[in-house]
Amino acid sequence: RWAGMVAAAPAVADRRVRLLQPTAKLIDMHRVRWRRQFQAASLLMPELGEAAGLCYRDEFVTAFAVAQTRQFLAGFRFIKIVPELALFLERSAGMLVMANLLLAEAPAGNVADERLRAVSPAAMAKRFHVSRTHVVTLLRDAVEAGLLARAERGSMRTLPLLRDAGERFFATAFLFNQAAAMRAMADIGSIPHVAAPAGLHG
Question: What's the sign of the alpha-carbon dihedral 168, 150, 97, 133?
Fold first, then answer.
């Protein structure tokens, strides 16, 4: 509420229940995020190029959110696909820290100062609005789990286990979004219904 992402919803009969609802600011943030994801995935899944162009339409955004929720309620969980990433998936800002580490990976033997600043616990804590202690603990646990290794000058190096799991996570995210987008486009009459990829409804 402080950031303007949610606001009080109309009162219900039971006054003990205080509901919140998303604001236009929160919805627009997701609208931009989804459009960028569709644009990236459209290099492999051309049909998502159309989905990217539909993100300005409220009925598509609503249908897409509903389709994602249906998959979640049917039992789909990313952690089932990439159990190795549990410590990132289940902690505040964990996926942001993981993505930051993967993106900042420098060629072997050429760790630039810019990368060192980007992956420092203090820098990630400030960027992702969590405590430095939280990030330090996350990185320590990732080292113990064989996902990261400590490198020169206090930096971190991603290991094959993390890189492989990261690839599976993002590939699954593309498929998850494709299934929801195709369902949403069918629901709003943009295209004929196309069956979702197998395994994404539970």
Answer: positive
Neighbours of 86 (CB within 10 A): 14
Helices 94-103 & 160-187 angle (0-180, nearest 10) = 110
Express as a percent the part of the chain with pLDDT over 70. 87
Residue 200's closest CA among 85, 68, 84? 68
φ/ψ bin of 152: left (φ > 0), alpha (ψ from -120 to 50), beta (otherwise): beta
Going by C-alpha positions, the residue among 187, 193, 170, 165 that lies closest to residue 69 is 187
CA 80 to CA 83: how far, in whole Å?
Answer: 6
Nearest residue to 168 (alpha-carbon basis) of 114, 102, 73? 102
pTM > 0.90: no
pLDDT band at 154 (very low <50, low <70, confident <90, very high): low
Q: Where are the beta strands (DSSP E) in the chain?
A: 6-8, 20-22, 148-150, 156-158
